[in-house]
Amino acid sequence: MSALPNLTPSASRGVDSQRNDPREKLIVALDVSTAPAAQKIVAAVGDSALTYKVGMQLYTAQGPQVVRDLVASGRRVFLDLKYHDIPTTVAAAVHEAAQLGVSMLTVHASGGGKMLRAAADAARANNPALVVLAVTVLTSLDENEMEKVGFRGTVREEVLRLAALALDSGCKGIVTSARETAALRADLGPNFAIVTPGVRPAGSSHADQARVATPAEAVAAGASHIVVGRPITEATDPAAEARAILQQIS
Ligand code: C5P
User: Fold this and answer.
1) pLDDT digits (tens, 9 = 90+) for 99-145
2) 52 vs 248: CA distance, rounded Å
3) Ligand 1 site: residues with CB under 6 angstroms?
4) 134, 83 in Cβ contact below 8 A?
5) Of the listed 25, 40, 82, 148, which one is catalytic?
6) How is 71-113 classified by DSSP, letter by letter?
7) Phi and psi at residue 60, in whole multiples of 5°?
8) CA-based nearest residue to 25, from 5, 4, 48
9) What is the mean predicted confidence (pLDDT) over 180-196?
């Protein structure tokens, strides 16, 4: 992605403008398989987004250079690889992600307190601003599936329990559907990030997302960030779509 245009200087963050800039809340998911496809989306979005999610599809296909190029162009990267392994291995992976310059990354809360602590400590040692987010219960699991994999409570109970464990273990935030966002805020307070995917602009197609919220609903429920993929990446005019979403969360 070396041909990636840089963010214009006014598009990057001054400390004062940062607080009121709705782009601080928007993450665009780059769910594609090639660097040129990712580059095309990023160029089309232009200055309308600051942060991009690189997940297992793009990372597996193209490797860390995609991340390096985004960071070098002035964008922030949310590396969504959902680490889940023994603490030493996860800490080493978090160290490497920090070296790549990512701003946010994900781990599975069900990896346990020691793994979560190891991830949080490795992040802090490399970059105190790096946000380790815990994934609680995958939204693809219904209560029947949850029972089969050994979860005992309802989805909400499990999400709250795992979220509390992650925050107690030093993680700075949680990835969760809009459905659980308000309960998480109410139970666990204001001082952590909640990243909400499954966000659809009012009136748009839901694609395969079952539990959707509009950008405004997600933020009103307490999300600090929303992840939006296809509504922006597959739009005829991705920048216009991103701007419309920013307006809804301003
Ligand atoms: O295209 P769309 O907006 O549905 O993209 C949503 C992004 O958020 C995808 O990258 C997907 O992996 C991620 N995600 C999700 N639902 C979850 C967790 C993550 O859609 N429960």
Assistant:
1) 999 999 999 999 999 999 999 999 999 999 999 999 999 888 888 88
2) 19
3) 29, 31, 53, 55, 139, 177, 197-198, 207, 209, 227-230
4) no
5) 82
6) HHTT-EEEEEEEE-S-HHHHHHHHHHHHHHT-SEEEEEGGG-H
7) -65, -40
8) 48
9) 95
Instruction: Calculate the alpha carbon distances from 41 to 31, 83, 152 in Å.
Output: 10, 26, 41
- Centre of ligand 1 to C-alpha 110, Å, is 19
Among protein residues, the one whose CA lies closest to atom 19 of ligand 1: 197
* Mutational pocket test of ligand 1: of 26, 28, 30, 31, the residue with most ligand atoms within 8 Å of the beta carbon: 31
pTM: 0.94
φ, ψ of residue 178 to 5 degrees: the values are: -60, -25
Predicted pLDDT of residue 17: 60
What is the whole-number distance in angstroms between the Cα of residue 197 and the centre of ligand 1?
Answer: 5
Q: Which two tokens stand for residue 154?
A: 């309802």
CA–centroid distance, residue 57 to ligand 1 (Å): 12
Nearest CA to 154 out of 126, 183, 134 is that of 183
25 classed as catalytic? no
- The number of the ligand 1 atom at minimal distance from the alpha carbon of 207 is 4
- What would the two tokens of residue 34 be? 């090639």
User: What amino acid occupies position 45?
Assistant: V
Any idea which residue has 């860390």 for tokens? 64
